[in-house]
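Please, structure for the following, as tokens.
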Amino acid sequence: MGYGRSFRVVPVRMASPALMILCSLPMLVYIVKTLRERIQPQQKRLRAAGWMLVCLSSFLCFADDLANIHGIVRTYNRVPIANTRVTARSAGANTEHGAITDQRGMYRIPGIAAGSWILSTSQFETRCDAKSGQDSPCDIVVSAQAGVTNGGIIDSATVRDLPVNGRDVQQATTLQAGVSAVETQQSASDTNSGRGQRGFGQQISLSGARPQQNNYLLDGITTNDYANSAPGSVLGLNLGADAVEQLAVNTSSYPAQFGRSSGGVVHAVTRSGSNAFHGSVYEFLRNSDLDARGYFDTAKPPFRRNQFGAAASAPIWRNHTYVFGNYEGLKQSLGLTQVDTVPSMGARQGALSSGTVRVDRLTAPYLDLFPLPNSGLLPGGDTGIFRFFGAARNQRGLLYKPRRSHH
């Protein structure tokens, strides 16, 4: 007896499209929420990467101001000391960098700010000046003496306290070997001397090169003037001595990063702030009452110079961010003695040393345009010396230099 199965087909009725969309909305909301939760962490990572890129670009902009310190830690008998920690501490700010010496006693501390640093080990402490954009060798001798090499660095105290006329920063470079000032440069006070054709700054020669072959840098930026000479105002001065942290002079064989010139390189690095508040206010006065009469002066011409300024530094965020600002101004009123040769009274009337001549009536009015001699006659009596004071000229020079540093 067999068994059989029967099947019944039941027709299925499809739901309407509106009903299907309504039923799928919770699923869509769930999918969107899940995707959002997964994308947000990626956005945070991208945002962090963007800030890191901005900080890196800012760091590269100021990379020229960074310096490196390297050297050997040894005993007085030249025995290297291995596996010892060398700490570099900023002399003005509470910033530290460290390194460990290798088996040969050598250490290297890269990427630090240019300026004065205090190097210390567990047994000794010494001072080293880091040159901007260069490797500064600073050996540490664990003894009563330590060999620290400066090599072409002029510190801020020397630049600031050097007794030069007008406190010109550029004149401090002549303290280095192979640097000499151009003695035949015309005076900047004489506007008719043509000095402006070659620049108003102090012209110096580095290792015999021409003044226009040098490169002058301020925090890594070239400051050569329109004539490719040293920077300077119309008074021939480069102000801002209180804003200079160090002045590095490279006469020859300087690193490849200092290109552009066939002569030497003068690199000025500005100061930065510190954790302590420091400031100074000054004024220097020169006038005719304190000067002696010149050889060609019948009386002292009027002269008055006021050079004044202020510098201050303070912390914004202790141990991290500091600010430093400097302002210097110079006002000068100078009168010059002019010496000229004019015809004497006898020559105007035709009584010359060689004989009497007739003075044409049309020429006589032009002879009266010359002043009479007031400082004696020259040999022969036909001409004489006339001296007079030129009108006092007012000249000004200003410098404003702010800087913010962050560690």
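The two ends are 100 Å apart (CA to CA). Helices lie at 17-61, 156-161, 345-348, 364-367.
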